[in-house]
Design goal:
Bound molecules: FE2/S2 (inorganic) cluster
Distance between the termini: 38 Å
Number of strands: 5
Order of helices and strands: EEHEEEHHHH
Oligomer: single chain
Structural class: alpha+beta
Strand content: 15-25%
């Protein structure tokens, strides 16, 4: 069966017909054309598909699109505004937090979810928030530095949004 899905996607109201068994990941990439959200393991293990649902990091490969009806969904495409990177995007860029970049949208959205709730996380809180995300390139040190840099950008007023 199909149903009408109404949601707020990257700040804009949207309505689409979706099958009951349509995954949020496939809806985002194939229906909405938002290919920044990546398909990795397709089984809840890698975090590459992480998006925010009402500001909570969510694995879109394990989420049915129909379950986000009436909710706010943010993907990595929502972050840059007017050509300016957000704090977390700048953190990854300026501290070399990505190499091949495939995992990066998932890490970035997990970090944005953390900083929207807690703009001053301790390193242990950062590591806990990223515990569901896997990177095969960076060794994670640069990723932690990227998030800490994003926190500094926000605290110093160099950036205004995670
Ligand atoms: S693609 Fe969703 S957790 Fe790996
Ligand atoms: S930068 Fe390549 S998998 Fe993370």
């Amino acid at each position: 069966m199909a149903r009408l899905l109404e949601l707020t996607l990257n700040g804009r109201a949207r309505v689409d017909a979706v099958a009951d068994n349509r995954l949020l990941l496939d809806y985002l990439r194939e229906t909405a054309g938002l290919t920044g959200t990546k398909t990795g393991c397709d089984g809840g293990e890698c975090g590459a598909c992480t998006v925010l649902v009402d500001d909570t990091p969510t694995l879109s490969c394990l989420t049915l699109a129909a379950t986000v009806a009436g909710k706010r969904v943010d993907t990595v495409e929502a972050l840059g505004q007017g050509g300016a990177l957000s704090a977390v995007q700048r953190g990854f860029h300026e501290k070399l937090g990505s190499q091949c970049g495939y995992c990066t949208p998932g890490f970035v959205m997990a970090c944005v979810g953390l900083l929207r709730h807690n703009p001053h996380p301790a390193e242990a809180e950062i590591r806990a928030a990223l515990g569901s995300n896997i990177c095969r390139c960076t060794g994670y040190v640069k990723i932690i530095e990227a998030v800490q840099h994003a926190c500094w950008l926000l605290a110093s007023g160099e950036a205004t949004r995670p």
